[in-house]
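Board notes (copied after class):
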Amino acid sequence: MLLSVIGYANVSYSQSTVQSDPGFYLLDVLLYRPVGLVATIAGTSAFVAISPLLGLASIPEPHDAFQRTAGILVLAPAAYTFIRPIGDRDFPYIAPPPRRTLSVIPKNTLKPLQQPVTTLEPAVKPK
């Protein structure tokens, strides 16, 4: 038992040993982030400009022209600019999925009120 405790204590977990260049951090903050912000603004304005055409493109199946185009023009540059950790060189940056999701209650699970609704009577009765 003592041998297993000693052997367990020597187990090391793998950690990232890749060191980023400090110059890349400076380049990331001074160049890549502002360029990403400009790309996000330009993509958003392009998305708004072509949204009537996207409405027409969404008519046939699979009805996902807005989602695909928004992902390319708006969400990808925004994730690269605002969500990507400083010094991360991965491009395109794929943002992690959201931690919380909205849950929708199906209509058939809603129950009517248990007590009847009474109407309010005026406090002063007319004479």
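Comment from the instructor: The CA atoms of residues 32 and 81 lie 8 Å apart. The first helix runs from residue 2 to 9.
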